[in-house]
């Protein structure tokens, strides 16, 4: 959980130019224009499932954390009032942030545990 939150924080501290932020926001608005509950579920599932792949899941999860933080940085560039909101507050104080943090941390940790079990032959001895 700590590594995910730290990587998210690093992403949120990224410097985003106004042009990059405008591009991100236009793509984001187009993406969520017609999304419903099932669409959100499908999107989150496609992000979370690769996190269970041994080894790769750790890198994928950390990239997901960084890109979520970067998205927050882009949003704060277009809406400066959000600069007063600490990025980790959104992650730890909102129900959606807590669910994302828990689910992604489970996926990342299982990926690490699986790669460790595969690389350690003593685990398969019994």
- Residue windows where pLDDT falls under 50 for at least 5 positions: none
Q: Report Rg.
A: 17 Å
Q: What's the main sheet like?
A: none
Strand content: under 5%
Number of strands: 0
Succession of helices and strands: HHHHHH
Q: Shape from CA axes?
A: globular
Mean pLDDT: 89
In DSSP terms (H or I, runs of 4 or more residues), the helix count works out at 6
Structural class: mainly alpha
Provide the number of structural domains.
1
Spatial gap, N to C terminus: 31 Å
Query: What oligomerization state is this entry in?
Result: single chain
Helix content: over 70%
Structure description:
- This protein is mainly α and 126 residues long.
- It has one domain (2-119).
- It is globular, with a radius of gyration of 17 Å.
- The two termini are 31 Å apart.
- The protein has helices spanning 2-12, 18-32, 37-48, 56-78, 87-93, 95-119.
- Helix 1 (2-12) runs parallel beside helix 4, helix 2 crosses helix 4 (56-78) and helix 5 crosses helix 6 (95-119).
- It has 6 helices and no strands.
- The model has no long low-confidence stretch (mean pLDDT 89).
- 74% of the residues lie in helices and 0% in strands.
